Fold each of these.
Amino acid sequence: MRVLSGIQPTGRFHWGNYFGAIRQYIALQTNEQAFYFIADLHALTTVHRPDDLKMYTWEAALDLLALGLDPARATLFRQSDVPEVTELTWLLMTVTQMSLLEKCHAYKDKIAKGLPADAGLFTYPVLMAADILAYDSDLVPVGQDQIQHIEVTRDLAQRFNHRFESDVFVLPNPQVLDSSAKVLGTDGEKMSKSYGNTIEIFHPAKKLRKKIMSIKTDSTPVEDPKDPNACAVFTLFRLFADQAEQQALAERYRAGGMGYGEAKQALFEQAEAYFAEAVARREQLAAAPDRVEEILQAGAASARLKARGVLNRARAACGLG
Ligand code: ADP
Ligand code: TRP
């Protein structure tokens, strides 16, 4: 079974990205054939400074490798290093109904807010369909918000197969990532770059501590008992701690006499220890950029080989070449 997923380099990865997506992708590399890519072409719909796009793409590669993506097991590459995908996007565009794209939420939301939308945003789901179909992907792990795009992908694959009386494309299935893993940000809302409430995985220790200390808490006095489950600090602590550690901290909340500062300090220590190995690995990777580039190039080469075969099938089916 081939598993494929992509993640956009639109900023530095945060705890929400890790627990909601990255950790789960990486776990799949153990038992399945995995293709993971950095969706730089998609990011171009929102990141407009070339230096930023370059930097976020590079940082994304370092982050994913540091967090345990193993190039010996999984194929990691930059989306834009596989031009076969953009060619396939065009072929798919010719079976895409306008009305299908008009229903897609990324575009619809922008229009609803009165914001200008470009054709890149409008056709974003077709590029995503090409990403998936180019590698005969069976399973696509994604967050809830991306399910609609997998449905579009299946629709386009079926239309193409039907129009050209072929079975060029394999129909993919989504694997919805664990939505209970919704991670809260420093303001107690869902953590997201667009809300400016993120805690990044690789903040330097001082910055990490500062961010954690800024998590919003209520004004219950130190001596009073507190409800751990109503507190964002505790909810975040649970991501990093085992059962016994969670219980111990929950008891301190309920007993009273503990200020939120102490709980934040506990969260800081727990998070720092949790990512310590990844931080060390990231430092090594950052010091060996040639090695990282080699991994991305090798990944692109094997992705291209696969995509070329699928593209040739599609070209032959519709009478090109
Ligand atoms: P952001 O909202 O910060 O822009 P993205 O939309 O780029 O993040 O998300 C990339 C992946 O991380 C998606 O699969 C998404 O489901 C997951 N993700 C993002 N934020 C969270 C969160 N707070 N909790 C759980 N998963 C999240
Ligand atoms: N659109 C996805 C997101 O924003 C990223 C993405 C691009 C993707 N192409 C993909 C995910 C193909 C899965 C498969 O999260």
Amino acid sequence: MILVLMGPPGAGKGTQAARLAADMSIPQVSTGDLLREARRDGSDIGKRAAGYMDAGTLVPDDLVIALIERRLEQGDCKPGAILDGFPRTVAQAIQLDDMLERGQRQVGAVVSIMVNEDEIVERILGRLTCGQCGAVFHRLIKPPAVAGQCDVCEGGVSSRSDDNEDAIRTRLQTYTNQTAPVLDYYAGAGRLEKVDGTGGMDDVFERIQDALSVA
Ligand code: AMP
């Protein structure tokens, strides 16, 4: 099962993708995480992606496609994967379909998590992320037990370099202009399930499970 989880930045994609991955015993594949890892490793792709990421704009399709193709070929993705933050352009969605078709696979379901803009800005400004394992916290709603330290791996927890107000506004604009058309692409193919992303994490998770049971 290849499942695509979509939604604007701050919609809770990462959190929900991790839960679904654990629930379905397939890996969560986040292009944001793959790109941050590439930056930490100092790889060529990481260096080329850094400026786009910090500005809140999209990394060019060819770099992201190369990363995702390599990742989906790994053995743990054979039974399936939860794609988090990919595809983000119609060109990426088309290339994903082509890539999967070559391996006689297909996107099984697409879930879009819907949250309004004011709530998104509030969520992202309070967001704290573990630099080591990617776990997500919130200054007010879900602070780590020990300030500055990840509850999961004890790595350092801080604000992401692109979680500032200017970059957030750019990322939201980018979402509207470049990623929202991907929803139309999947809706046209009858593959899209929309889920209300407001409220608690458990409620949203339940709604996603309901949507998947009818997909
Ligand atoms: P995320 O962790 O999903 O919020 O992604 C962080 C940043 O990584 C984005 O603002 C983009 O600069 C870049 N990025 C992640 N996924 C993609 C993608 N599928 N296409 C292009 N850029 C991406």
